Amino acid sequence: MPVIHEFDPPERFVAGTVGEPGARTFYLQARTGPRVVSVALEKQQVVVLAERIDELLDEVMASTGNAAVVPAVAPIGLDDSEPLEQPIDEQFRAGTMTLSWDPGIARVVIEVFPLTDTAEEDDAEEIEPDEVFLVRLEAGPARAFVKRAGLVIEAGRPDCPFCGNPIDPDGHLCVRANVFRRRDPV
Fold first, then answer.
1. Residues 39 and 18: beta-carbon distance below 8 Å
2. Which of 40, 45, 134, 49 is closest to 93 using CA atoms?
3. Is 74 left (phi over 0), alpha (psi -120 to 50) or beta?
4. Which pLDDT score, from 0 to 100, does residue 65 have?
5. Per the omega criterion (within 30 degrees of 0), is the bond before 9 cis?
6. Is the pTM above the cut of 0.85?
7. What is the rounded average pLDDT of the residues 80-103?
């Protein structure tokens, strides 16, 4: 039986980082009262989670006969620009995540499972995880999560306009700008 870190709903659920751009560690963090759970994950996982939550809420909003009230944008007053709760105690590193809408309670359901060794996955059809991070969010806080996640992603290193790779604070050797001749658009 896995340990389930459940927040239904959390007082706070955010994506955040620790470290300087280019060397940041990304976290999902939920808090209810003094209980805080932090799960490390990759930047791209934050991007995809935020996009999928936004798409899910848009689908729920557009569905016919839906009694749930889903705001089109994050409601005023739910913005959260505070840093992550300290100390950050990494519970586990995120692997697989699932996302769904529970119409019975009108909440987004996010399940995060630990990263597992791929060799273990090949040996068994389905391995029960040791832990699960389970968060149920109302629509307004879910939109606020999406907004904050976008800001967290944008706060990283700027992209090179030529190659699209991130530019480090010390500079950037751009293959496209240094090797290939640029052509003006015709």
1. no
2. 40
3. beta
4. 58
5. yes
6. no
7. 96
